[in-house]
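Before the break, one more example. Copy the sequence into your notebook; we will annotate it together after we see the structure.
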Amino acid sequence: MSQLLILGIIIIAILAFFNREWIKNRFFPDEKRNYTIDDQFNSDKRDREKEIDRLLSKMGKNGIKDLSAKDRKRLDELSKK
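Here is what the structure looks like once it is written out:
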């Protein structure tokens, strides 16, 4: 009887190991996947605004001279959206 119990536990552990991605998605779904189009748009907009704020604060007192060429290009791209 105890051997069957141990065998059952081992089989369950093996099945859980190979199906861990399905178990994770089933019981802990990714919240971003459930967004509506509006929620996704607002989330993207907030991310852009945060990046713009980060770049503007990086400029600090010396102005645009503090930004690297890559940062200036990214700021231009974000400001056009």
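The chain has a mean pLDDT of 85. The helical segments are 2-18, 20-27, 37-59, 69-80. Try to locate both features in your own notes.
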